[in-house]
Design brief:
It is a single chain. Strand 8 and strand 9 form a beta hairpin. The protein is α+β, with helices and mostly antiparallel strands and 247 residues long. 23% of the residues lie in helices and 32% in strands. Helix 1 runs antiparallel to helix 2.
Length: 247
């Protein structure tokens, strides 16, 4: 099998910093306002409180800048490799009867992202975004066993040589997983397609015929860690990913 080294194209580059704008402005307004109020209206012997508020605000701003980082990634992958869609830790690999929006046996790979992971999600395969479904739900901790079915989430159906599904699942501290792509958009494996803020969870569904080499407990990196390989049948080559879609 030919191995290629590919630098990810800057699709959706800079979107993470746009997502950071509102949280950063909130931190600035709250802590800056409190510090200013302390200076103008509080007794002189409590001015040190304003210095503490300024320090806390600066620390939070630095954390936000760190959290919303979006490093460039290089991948080394073959044509039929499955690329990890997120940074984090694999907390579950199991076969399920159906994937969201797709019929047939699928393998579900669940990845938990803590607050210190890069929270950009990337395409697991090259393909077209066939559908994006936004589901309301709860805000259970992302590591909870029911978070994948009960939490607020985006479900992204991808049509390539195989059908893959990615779930962006909100955690207890976040209310809005974000998709930066639209239905019909075509992207390469490893391209950015969205992000979730703070602790969260990503689930990838691929056909059960795929050979998954990743294991539960693995620490993975989005866009660079290879989770396994898929196999193309003759029918999939003629009608990629349309076979098995739920009507």
């Amino acid at each position: 099998m030919e191995i290629i080294k590919q630098k990810i194209k800057p699709v959706n580059k800079g979107m993470a910093k746009q997502e950071m704008f509102i949280p950063a402005m909130l931190v600035f307004a709250v802590f800056g306002g409190l510090a200013l109020g302390n200076y103008l209206y509080w007794p002189r012997d409590t001015q040190w409180i304003g210095l503490i508020l300024n320090a806390v605000g600066i620390i939070l701003f630095i954390f936000l800048y760190y959290f919303y980082r979006d490093p460039e990634r290089n991948i080394t992958a073959g044509e039929q490799d499955i690329v990890c869609p997120a940074d984090g830790k694999i907390v579950g690999i199991e076969e399920v009867s159906d994937a969201p929006g797709v019929k047939g046996r699928y393998i579900r790979i669940s990845i938990f992202l803590n607050a210190f992971n890069v929270h950009i999600q990337r395409m697991p395969i090259t393909g077209k975004v066939l559908n994006i479904t936004v589901l309301p739900g709860l805000l259970l901790p992302a590591f909870h066993k029911n978070a994948g079915t009960k939490n607020k989430q985006n479900i992204i159906l991808i049509k390539g040589d195989i059908t893959a599904v990615v779930k962006q699942i909100a955690g207890v501290l976040v209310h809005r997983p974000v998709a930066w792509v639209e239905t019909g958009e075509e992207l390469l494996a490893g391209d950015r397609f969205g992000m979730i803020t703070f602790g969260s969870r990503v689930e990838l569904f691929v056909p059960s015929s795929c050979n998954i080499t990743a294991q539960e407990g693995d620490i993975v990196t989005g866009g660079t860690t290879l989770l396994g390989k898929y196999h193309k049948s003759v029918s999939e080559k003629k009608h990629p990913a349309e076979k098995g879609l739920k009507k």
